[in-house]
């Protein structure tokens, strides 16, 4: 049985000479990755619709945060922007000039 797919069908391919410890370790890792234990713990008690919406919003935020972190550059100031271009942008943002004074 191959790992992957939907929830509930976790499995691993076992080699002939593979030890029990490594089999168990790989299986446990696949179960954790699939979130089976979290789902079991969550279903132990009744979850109201309000709590379910909160949980799903929290999970979506976590997924989106991870996705945004992968897309955005970690240090935007280190882009291929030259120092001259950066200074020109900063000068454009300055609005210190007041009519008649400067």
From TrEMBL:
HAMAP family: Ribosomal_bS21. Coiled coil: none annotated. This is 30S ribosomal protein S21. Transmembrane segments: none annotated. Belongs to the bacterial ribosomal protein bS21 family. Residues 43-68 have a biased composition (Basic residues). It holds the Pfam family Ribosomal_S21. It comes from Oryza barthii. Gene3D superfamilies: Ribosomal protein S8. GO terms for biological process: translation. It comes from the Eukaryota. Keywords: Ribonucleoprotein, Ribosomal protein. Residues 43-102 are annotated as: Disordered. One of its GO terms (cellular component) is ribonucleoprotein complex. GO terms for molecular function: structural constituent of ribosome. Residues 69-96 have a biased composition (Basic and acidic residues).
């Amino acid at each position: 049985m191959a790992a992957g797919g939907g929830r509930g069908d976790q499995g691993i391919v076992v080699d002939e000479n593979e030890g029990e410890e490594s089999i168990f370790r790989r299986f446990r890792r696949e179960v954790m990755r699939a979130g089976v234990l979290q789902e079991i713990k969550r279903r132990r008690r009744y979850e109201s619709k309000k709590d379910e919406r909160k949980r799903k919003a929290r999970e979506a935020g976590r997924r989106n945060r991870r996705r945004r972190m992968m897309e955005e550059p970690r240090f935007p100031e280190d882009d291929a922007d030259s120092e001259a271009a950066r200074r020109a942008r900063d000068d454009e943002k300055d609005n210190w000039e007041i009519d008649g004074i400067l």
